[in-house]
Structures are given as C-alpha cells and as structure tokens.
C-alpha cells in the first residue's frame, strides 16, 4: 500500500463526515461566552510554546563537529584536527604537558576534559556512539561502557522534558475549550517519543551533514523534540473547541431550567394556598383577577390591537418554527437516549400534590380551604 492509498483510506471517510455535517445543518445553537480562564489557558500555552522555541536555539556541544572530521575518518586526521583546534583555542597548550601555564582552574579543567574526550573518541565506534548519545553522556558518565549504559544515562533528561510538556499541557487544557487538546496532545507526545527512541536506539543514521562533517544525532533529536513541542503548544493556544453547545450540554441546560420552573410552580401553589386560606386575602385575590380579566377583555376587543396582532403573526413562519422546534427537541432526546443520559432522569415519581384544599402549615396543623366557584368572565355575561 502506497502513501497515497493510505492517505485516501484515512482521509476520505473524514472528509465525507465533514461534508455531511456541513450540508445537514440543524437549527442554530447559542454560543458560550469567553471566560477569563480561557484567556489564561491560551496565554499559558503560548508561553510554553515560546519557551520551547527558546530551547531550540540553545547551542548543543558537538566536539567532532568543531573538529570538522568525519566519524569514520582515520585516526591521524582526528589527531591533526584536534591539535589544530587546541592550538587555536589555547595557544599555550602543548600535547602531553601538564599545562602549568594555564593559570585559570576552569581552563585547566576544560583542557583536561577535552583531552580525555579525544582519547575516548579515537575509535570510529566511539565517535558514532558520541554522535548518537550526545556530549554529556561521554563527558559526565563515569560508569558508561556500552550503548545500553549511555542510553540509560540520557533517558532521564529526555523523559524530564516529556514530563514537563505533559504537565504544561495538562494545566493548559483544564478549560472545556482546550479539552480536545488533552487527548490529541497526549497522542502527539507519545508519537514524538517513539520516533525519537527509534532514531536513537534502533535507527542507523548517517552521522554526517552535506559537507561531510560529523552531525550529532542526539542534538538533532533535541531540536526536533522542542520544535514539535512548540508547534503543539502554539496550536493548542490558537485552536479552540467550537463554541456551539453539544446535545449533552443542551439537555443539561434544559433540565436545569425545567427544575427552576418546577420550583417556581411549587412556590406559586404554596403562595396561592396561603392566600386562599385567609378570608380577607381571598377577597382581594378575587377582586384583583376580576380587574385583570376586565382589562384583558377590553384589550382583546380593541380593533387596533387585533390589526397589530395579525400583522405581527404574519411576519413569523409558524410552520417553520414548529418544524425547527420539533427537530431540535427530537435531536436532543434521541442523543440523550443514545448516550444513556435519559436513564438518569426519574420520570416515575410524581411531584407532590400541594392543593389549596388541604395545606399543611408550619406548626403541623392542616388547613382545609373551601374552594369558591370560579368567577365567570365578563365575556360570558
């Protein structure tokens, strides 16, 4: 299977689903407001991306590259280039001398480390190991003797950078707008780690650049890793989840609003029962609704009101509104059934019946109110 066939096999179903979603658009949904935590999350991820870019520019040591030698060059070429490099960097240096003229202790230590490194890089296998596992593994590891030891020495520093990026990604994706990057970012970091591990431990690269000079594989992996981390952090900072509410979010919002409406209706029934339990309050209650009914009846009979009402109704497509409402409600309920959310709604328990005819008072007694006959409308008279 070629790369084109693999790309088509993966990409065509994705494009078909996107095209179907584009042409099959449902009713518009409300957008969520942008919160301060979304801003903080984007700024934090952007800062992480800039830090990773700054790490890419940090120069990594490559002693063989500074000597301008091929990893498989003869020993005398490496020796001559090393002597020229030392005479250029330290004019008072003499091969085999104790370097007493170098008065500064840091320079003495540096010269001693370079001489030890040169002694360890005389063989071609050691040069390849140096380019594979980096400068620190061959200068700081005192117990390393084979490739497994060098790999064990460099893995903690490599894993610490991955752990740092995973932690930053976890903190930066706490908001719902960045939640998708928690999954995508973890998968991307795992892929980057596997690729780097393959390049360091399994792959047999050419340790030279286009000029035939030794090129450090470890330094190249270092740059590649931090460039990938920077790209991932900047993409997570710039790309957010869609502002549209999901079906689950809409269902939760509808349930919360229905709960509020139910609580208000219960409070209204309690207030009505308390009002009708008192003779004076009951009389005022009846008078108030008689006045409201008379006013409403007068407004409904007004010709100007009727004309304005008909014009207002003509500006709306009632059939289209009803179809959209049915489509939206059906989609929400079906999604709730498919995802199992509807099972969490207890529809078997009926709400408590708070009737005006029998209402419990706070002191534990029960007040029975005789229902008055309904007030006839002035329209029926």
TrEMBL record:
<keyword id="KW-0472">Membrane</keyword>
<feature type="compositionally biased region" description="Polar residues">
    <location>
        <begin position="357"/>
        <end position="368"/>
    </location>
</feature>
<feature type="transmembrane region" description="Helical">
    <location>
        <begin position="150"/>
        <end position="172"/>
    </location>
</feature>
<protein>
    <submittedName>
        <fullName>Uncharacterized protein</fullName>
    </submittedName>
</protein>
<keyword id="KW-1133">Transmembrane helix</keyword>
<feature type="transmembrane region" description="Helical">
    <location>
        <begin position="184"/>
        <end position="202"/>
    </location>
</feature>
<feature type="compositionally biased region" description="Basic and acidic residues">
    <location>
        <begin position="369"/>
        <end position="381"/>
    </location>
</feature>
<feature type="region of interest" description="Disordered">
    <location>
        <begin position="351"/>
        <end position="381"/>
    </location>
</feature>
<keyword id="KW-0812">Transmembrane</keyword>
<feature type="transmembrane region" description="Helical">
    <location>
        <begin position="222"/>
        <end position="239"/>
    </location>
</feature>
């Amino acid at each position: 299977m070629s790369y084109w066939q693999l790309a088509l096999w993966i990409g065509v179903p994705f494009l078909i689903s996107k095209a179907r979603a584009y042409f099959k658009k449902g009713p518009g949904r409300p957008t969520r407001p942008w919160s301060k935590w979304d801003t903080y999350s984007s700024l934090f991820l952007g800062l992480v991306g800039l830090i990773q870019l700054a790490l890419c520019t940090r120069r990594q040591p490559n002693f063989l590259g500074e000597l301008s030698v091929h990893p498989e060059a003869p020993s005398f070429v490496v020796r001559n280039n090393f002597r020229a490099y030392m005479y250029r960097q330290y004019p008072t240096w003499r091969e085999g001398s104790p370097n007493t003229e170098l008065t500064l202790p840091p320079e003495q230590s540096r010269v001693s480390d370079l001489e030890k490194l040169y002694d360890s890089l005389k063989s071609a296998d050691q040069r390849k190991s140096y380019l594979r596992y980096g400068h620190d593994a061959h200068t700081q590891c005192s117990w390393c003797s084979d490739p497994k030891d060098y790999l064990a020495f460099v893995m903690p520093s490599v894993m610490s950078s991955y752990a740092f990026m995973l932690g930053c990604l976890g903190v930066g994706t706490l908001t719902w707008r960045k939640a998708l990057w928690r999954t995508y970012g973890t998968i991307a970091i795992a892929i980057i780690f596997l690729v780097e591990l393959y390049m360091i431990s399994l792959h047999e690269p050419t340790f030279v650049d286009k000029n035939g000079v030794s090129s450090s594989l470890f330094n190249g992996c270092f740059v590649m890793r931090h460039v990938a981390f920077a790209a991932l952090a900047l993409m997570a900072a710039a790309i957010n989840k869609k502002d549209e509410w999901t079906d689950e979010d809409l269902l939760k919002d509808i349930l919360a609003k229905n709960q509020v409406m139910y609580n208000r209706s219960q409070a209204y029934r309690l207030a009505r029962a308390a009002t009708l339990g008192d003779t004076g309050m009951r009389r005022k209650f009846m008078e108030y609704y008689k006045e409201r009914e008379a006013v409403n009846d007068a407004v409904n009979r007004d010709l100007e009101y009727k004309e304005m009402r008909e014009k207002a109704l003509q500006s709306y497509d009632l059939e289209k509104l009803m179809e959209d409402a049915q489509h939206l409600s059906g989609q929400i309920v079906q999604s709730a059934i498919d995802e199992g959310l509807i099972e969490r709604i207890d529809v078997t328990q009926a709400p408590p019946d708070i009737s005006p005819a029998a209402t419990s008072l706070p002191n534990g007694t029960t007040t029975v109110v005789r229902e008055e006959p309904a007030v006839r409308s002035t329209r029926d008279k």
